[in-house]
Amino acid sequence: MLTGKQKRFLRSKAHHLNPIFQVGKGSVNENMIKQISDALEARELMKVSVLQNCEDDRDTVAEQLSKGARAELVQVIGNTIVLYKESRENKTIVLP
For the CRM domain, which residue ranges apply (predicted)? Predict the structure, then answer.
């Protein structure tokens, strides 16, 4: 689990990132979770945006993605979800 200080640190790091994935009408599926998991391994920190036509609410989507990809949910702000997962191969972010 992340501490408040670590979440603040990750939020500031994520601020300038653009969402890589969009969750839309099909909502969350296995394929998307796999892709997000792979992307997190490559970059550790990422944003996912939830589109207006998504059938689930953003908190449900955030929970499904973080559980599925075994990632930490850093923040849900507006329709954007910030996820973090420590990379095994390319660790670049050092948490405070």
Answer: 1-96
